[in-house]
Amino acid sequence: MGRNEVEDKVENVVDPEDEHNGDPGDKKLKQEVGEISVERLFEDQEVPSWRKQLTMRAFVVSFFLSILFTFIVMKLNLTTGIIPSLNVSAGLLGFFFVRTWTRLLQKSGLLKQPFTRQENTVIQTCVVASSGIAFSGGFGNYLLGMSESISKQSSNTHDFKNPSLGWIIGFLFVVSFLGLFSVVPLRRIMIIDFKLTYPSGTATAYLINSFHTPHGAKLAKKQVRALGKFFTFSFLWGFFQWFYHAGDNCGFLYFPSLGLEAYKYRFYFDFSTAYVGVGMICPYIINVSVLVGGILSWGLMWPLIENRKGDWYPANLKSDSMFGLQAYKVFIAIALILGDGLYNFLKVLSQTILGLSHQLLTKKLSSELPVANHSSPTSSQLSYDDKRRSQLFLKDQIPTWFAIGGYVAIAAISIGTLPHIFHQLKWYYILVIYIFAPALAFCNAYGCGLTDWSLASTYGNLAIFTIGAWAGASLGGVLVGLAACGVMMNIVSTASDLMQDFKTGYLTLASPRAMFVSQLIGTSMGCVIAPSVFWLFYNAFQDIGVPGSEYAAPNAIVFRNIAIVGVEGFSSLPKNCLLLCFVFFGAAILINLVRDRVDKKWSRYIPLPMAMAIPFYLGPYFAIDMCVGSLILFIWEKINKSKADAFGPAVASGLICGDGIWTLPASILALAGVKPPICMKFLSRGSNAEVDNFLKSLG
């Protein structure tokens, strides 16, 4: 089939805006288009060299998008810690900005280089690498867990290191690049030989490929328009909410939408457009799992344990004491997280070993046995795509000596630098981590290729227990464990991110060298942008990490207490807390076993323990927001599924981006000492004199 015929078929696909629901002709046409060789669409286009894929405009756009996405990730990190995949949003916005740029230059006759899908891939890679540092940098977990404010909420109050912009940037620069160099030599094995799926990378590649076809460009323009509308709405709604938030317990965040008794146990809708958007992006089972966890903990367990006050724990303790109810909230959540993490770690490790054995055995057999030559159209199309992609993927090699030399050099610098940042972290602790890190980075990258599930936090917890216990309580083991967690999380997280990007580059014919350079530049940006954004939050909002505040950062206290348990044991826990921890640890493993053993038709209804654990400490209010997002998407899909599939991610991204970027002016106003003009109280008539006088005047 020729390129013109293919383009005609693609352009004839009915747009979701105009499509009639359930039209079998449309579905048949879409199915036919789905079978067309992707690379035949682009066979007349010359693939630019790897240097030409790295354009100045790409990195200018990446820089501004990185700031936007870092604000989004940082806000989500410091509120609940639930961060959806933003790859689609990065690809979509990158396409929109550069396409607008090139259109303007084209009209003025100044365009020298057209916008290609390879350049789009470079932008997406750079933005995701940069904003990814906002997660792996630990601003919502291990790094904030080192601070004095979090230490005061734990049983270990003396082992802390307060955040400072200088040492955070230095720490990130010496630990964030090792993961990139550790898996570069394995790119051919993972992508071409083993043909790992990397679902997020594959989905992003198909999205970028579609953008650069005539029909895809038309649809992308409509998607960006939808994103812009909901971005504006979300941003203005954030300003509207801020306007009425002049004091404590003011504003829509404190509206008891489900009643006063429910509000007491954090069951309310807090009008967060960001988490409505997150609910539209996350799978239904994630949102339902979070709600189930909230109902189980705040609806059943905490009221029952609260009635045991004076028996299980002293009645005169403050609500945030780690020797009272707070201990149950934190440590039962930790038990669920560790049970789920251990199960998935062993599961992915076994899949990795079995998968490697199968791949190596299959490769050996295929080299000994003749392969049948299938002549079906689909096979020939697939072989054409694979041949073209493999040829270009292997063209621009990254020398193995460069990867190994880079890893050794950065590891040496890191071993010499980190003990100056954390005096308790001895050089030999870091050396041991760097010896084992490449193997763990490979396991995480391989597992992510199979399941799309990065276990960076689990590997981080493994480092907390092993290195923290090795250091011991007398040598600052809590701080050592948290620092070791940061080193490990950065390595394994960036390794899986890089391999996802290699998969995207493979499917869009982007050069591996361009991908690697883009990842290096994006990571460098992130090492400066992410700490700067965090520092803005940290100075603008004085209640970061405080239970019940807007930026409660629940994972910070969880990670710190994991470190305390690893170093000191369970001796200080209140009555029956350890027993409940064992019960929930076992329950997490049992639930996962059942999920994997039953039929897929039923397993999708079984909640995920990791998601259930999130509201145990924080409360279920954000779960209600997310379920509202799920309900909106569910109804939309029932009304018009194709339109929901096409525009749902754009609408969700607009809601998340608008609310996330509002935190920038809100932070600046807070730093400048500008407070909202009105305090709107919902919970007490007499707490606001003006409202009280107004109500009295009405008689």
UniProtKB/TrEMBL annotation:
Write out the transmembrane intervals.
58-76, 82-101, 122-144, 164-186, 226-244, 284-305, 326-346, 398-415, 427-447, 467-493, 514-539, 577-594, 614-636
Chain positions covered by the region annotation Disordered:
1-29
Which InterPro entries does the entry mention?
OPT, YSL-like
Keyword annotations for this protein, in alphabetical order, are:
Membrane, Transmembrane, Transmembrane helix, Transport
Membrane topology for this entry? Multi-pass membrane protein
Q: Where is the composition biased (Basic and acidic residues)?
A: 1-12, 19-29
The protein's superkingdom reads Eukaryota
Recorded GO CC terms: membrane
Q: Which Pfam families match?
A: OPT
Q: Where in the cell is it found?
A: Membrane
Instruction: Drop me one GO molecular function for this one.
Output: oligopeptide transmembrane transporter activity
Instruction: Please report which protein family the annotation says this sequence is part of.
Output: Belongs to the YSL (TC 2.A.67.2) family.
Protein name listed in UniProt: Metal-nicotianamine transporter YSL7
Source lineage? Eukaryota, Viridiplantae, Streptophyta, Embryophyta, Tracheophyta
